[in-house]
Amino acid sequence: MSNGTHYEVLARKYRPQTFSELAGQEHVSRTLQNAIDSGRVAHAFLFTGARGVGKTSTARIMAKTLNCEKGVTHEPCNVCPQCIEITKGTSTDVFEIDGASNNGVDDVRDLRDNIKYLPSHSRYRIIIIDEVHMLSTNAFNALLKTLEEPPEHVKFIFATTEPHKLPVTILSRCQRFDFKRVTLPKIICRLREIADKESVVVSDTSLALIARKGDGSMRDSLTAFDQVLAFCGNSVSDEDVGTLLGTIDRRLLAEISAAIFGGNTQVVLAGIKQVDLVGYNMRQFCQELIEHFRNLLIIRSVKKPEEILDMTAAELDELNKQSLHITALDIQRRLTLFIKAESEMSYASFPRLIVEMALLKAALLAPLVPIQELIEKIKGLETAAVHTPSLPWEAARTVSVPVPQYAEPEQNTSSSSRPSQPDEGGEAVVVNEHGGEHADWGRFVAFVNEKNRQLGSVLEHGSPFKQETGLIEIGFPAGSYYLIAAQDTEFIDDVKALASTFAGGNTVIRVKSIETGFADTPLSLAEKKKCDAEQRLEDLKQEVEKHPVIKEAERVFGSCITDVREL
After folding, report:
1. In whole angstroms, what is the distance from residue 71 CA to residue 37 CA?
2. Has residue 538 been placed in a domain?
3. Which of 122, 303, 364, 486 sits between 20 and 30 A of 145, alpha carbons compared?
4. Distance between CA atoms of 195 and 262, rounded to whole angstroms?
5. Using N-to-C axis directions, what is the helix angle for 438-451 and 489-503, rounded to 10°?
6. What CA–CA distance (Å, rounded) separates 150 from 338?
7. DSSP character for 441?
């Protein structure tokens, strides 16, 4: 480590100075070098990509290759005055502008006026605009003509993390290069080189944690490494790195996942307690757990996971061991629970409880029965069904015929106390205790329905108190819509006309209000239909519950009947 009074952070000290030092962007380096060697260097470049992946460093290297005193070459010498000035940022012919703070139209106009002059002691005037998407619309418009036809001695290099914010007119005038996120192994390799140069003792595990903290950004990884060195000095331990960077130890994730698949709820909750004790963010922990299970799922789903997962060989071996006795379906079921829990935590005030519930549910998930085993059991049920009575819904159900009920004849017989006789169709006429003939009432309502469906729908909710020659008396619940409709004069007249036609003589219609709940009140047709349906469904439930095939299915599948419906 440097012992001088001025300390230079690692991200600046080890900034790439040549294309060969540019880690993870070989596709950009090769294209630019070929363009330089062939003399096909464009007048404007656009470098896009995430933060800290080498966009500005590449722009500086490009400037040095174009202005190097040893000639235009695909690698700068870094020893001539031109290269040294560009490296230090003191060159008068290379302008590095921050688009966020120089985003006005006046700034672009000044720049446009200055580039008219020839470079002072270089081949090209090179304009590097970082975060170019921050320029205003007027600034872009002022830049358009110059960008399309710049002087021969001017080159533009733009860098941005958000290319979608640039006008199409700017994009069409630039050669675009998309910078990739730096892969984990390349970041670790670069960190190992720097650690060796700085005489730092650090394990590969710690370097992997630091690299993962950078999330594909070399600069962020070096910044995290700087922070670790400031805390640990030249001897770095794995525990210190995990504590300082706030990352969950991979061993803890492995223990929790093993406890989940083993159904050990004690270890699962102990792991959550440990996460909470170190003050780690619960949502971040849930995200890392999702990432861990995603890695397990990929390992169990593809033949070459190393081509998909951005992990070291040691980490892949460890995950392979963890997933030996786990199926991809088991992982997927639990992963779904964690993803749902993570989304719920964004607006919850008790994130720990949400994580605990998700982990407990994952640990207590019942194992799925293999589909082939279920097929064999179903075949067994089919074999058993051959020797058992038909299922209730397959049986030819007999239609229950109402049993004729006759009122006892009194000594003084009258037309209202006569025992009912079967009609021509064989249906018995039932005389209720009020003297009305319920079957006749049903036929009358059916007749009305054929003539006028609106009248019939009201009569279906009426209770037949009397139905005799010349008189029909109907009761409706007090306060109901049907009572109000039936008391209408036009309604009574229409029903009277239909009743007279049905009976073959003049018939009086009486409508009265009744209180519901009395045992002696005759049932309306709608009430009778409802009671019959409920009784039929209850009978069907009892048949289903007692059927031997259903009982066997409950035993085989460990299930129970939740609902029975009549088809």
Report:
1. 11
2. no
3. 122
4. 40
5. 110
6. 55
7. H
Residue-averaged pLDDT of the chain: 81
User: Sheet harboring 463-468: ordered strands across?
Assistant: 463-468, 471-477, 508-514
Same domain, 172 and 48: yes
Residue pointed to by tokens 């960077």: 245
| pLDDT digits 0-9 by tens, 352-406 | 999 999 999 999 987 766 667 667 777 776 666 555 555 555 544 444 444 333 3
Q: Record the tokens describing residue 106, joined without a space.
A: 């006046």
CA–CA gap between residue 95 and residue 93 (Å, rounded): 6
Q: What total number of domains does the chain contain?
A: 5
Both tokens of 201, joined, read: 């003792």
Co-location of 163 and 189 in the same domain: no
Range with the lowest mean pLDDT among 2-11, 22-31, 105-114, 402-411?
A: 402-411
Question: Is position 64 within any domain?
Answer: yes
Give just the sign of the alpha carbon dihedral 507, 511, 512, 518: positive
Residue 2 resides in a domain: no
Tens digit of each residue's pLDDT (9 = 90 or more) over 69-98: 887 888 889 899 899 999 988 888 898 888
Q: What are the structure tokens assigned to 505, written together? A: 């003589």
Q: Are 9 and 126 in contact (CB under 8 A)?
A: no
**555 and 491: one domain?**
no
Q: 297: pLDDT confidence band, cut at 50, 70 and 90?
A: very high
196, 239: one domain: yes
Q: Assess contact for 447 and 502: CB atoms under 8 A.
A: yes
Q: Are residues 149 and 77 in the same domain?
A: yes
Distance, in Å, from the CA atom of 509 to the CA atom of 468, rounded to the nearest integer, reads 11
pTM of the model: 0.58
User: CA-CA distance, 452 to 524, in Å (whole number)?
Assistant: 19
Single out the residue of 485, 475, 481 nearest to residue 515, CA to CA.
475
Strand (E) or helix (H) holding 412: none
Where do we find the tokens 């533009």? 156
Average pLDDT on 209-225 reads: 88
Residues 157 and 190 in one domain: no
Find residue 160's DSSP bridge partners: 48
Q: Could you tell me which residues come within 8 angstroms of residue 139 by beta carbon, excluding any fewer than 6 positions away?
A: 103, 104, 105, 107, 108
